[in-house]
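This protein record is not my work; I was only asked to verify it. Would you go through it and say whether the fold makes sense for this chain? Here is the record exactly as it was handed to me.
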Amino acid sequence: MKNNKIKNASPLDFDGIHFRSVFECIAYKELLKNGFSPQYEVEKVVLFKGFKPRLCWYKNGIPKITKNGNVKKELDITYTPDFKLEINGYNVYLEIKGFPNDVYPYKRKMFLYHIKDKPSLFFEINNMDGLRKTIELLKDANTFTKN
């Protein structure tokens, strides 16, 4: 079954976890092999709180209302990082992105804003070389000094 939210992704089950892509599963295995305890999709962040518009709005001339005639609520915009690690008092977020969709760059910016005042690091990983480099950085205690 194809994952429509992730471009060219094939879901995979491993270790009791349902990964959205093979690359996420590979990253999980590599993190375990290197002594880390990755948590998969454990933190869902509300980037923008949903709301109920005061006025009805239209899409292609069709009102956006419920079956009861009420204006439809605009849903929250959320983001769930692929992996979360806790290292030296830092929350470390890893986003595994083979082929990012068109919404991802906006959500990444909003998430970075969300964590900007917290002891956090964010890594976007697009390939195996990036994964290896990230793991080496995570092993280096100097990565976790404040800038």
About this structure: The chain has two domains: 12-44+80-141, 49-76.
